[in-house]
């Protein structure tokens, strides 16, 4: 008889030190950006005693923001919040012409397909 191992965490999101799923990607991109800021500053001739604390403070801010967002919104919550921000609060129209055009298009529909014709076509096919 064979013995199989059970993989209990197969469909769980990746989590490292409380930071879940896509927040790890945000943190990695932020660290790469901070590294680029340090390199560009170093190549530009900025003194190291200014660059290291600046990058350190920005790194601390990045890590705290990512960890707070991860704990506040969860695995998919931040994407839902960003999507909700794109939904308009209201649709404003200063004219009724749009609605009149919609009703005209519905009344003048030349497609020739209606619910009753579909039912009669399907019944004739089955007979």
TrEMBL record:
Keyword Transmembrane among record annotations: yes
InterPro entries xrefs: DUF4133 (IPR025407)
The name this protein goes by in its record: DUF4133 domain-containing protein
UniProt keyword terms in alphabetical order: Membrane, Transmembrane, Transmembrane helix
Residue spans crossing the bilayer: 21-40, 46-66
Lineage: Bacteria, Pseudomonadati, Bacteroidota, Chitinophagia, Chitinophagales
Domain of life of the source: Bacteria
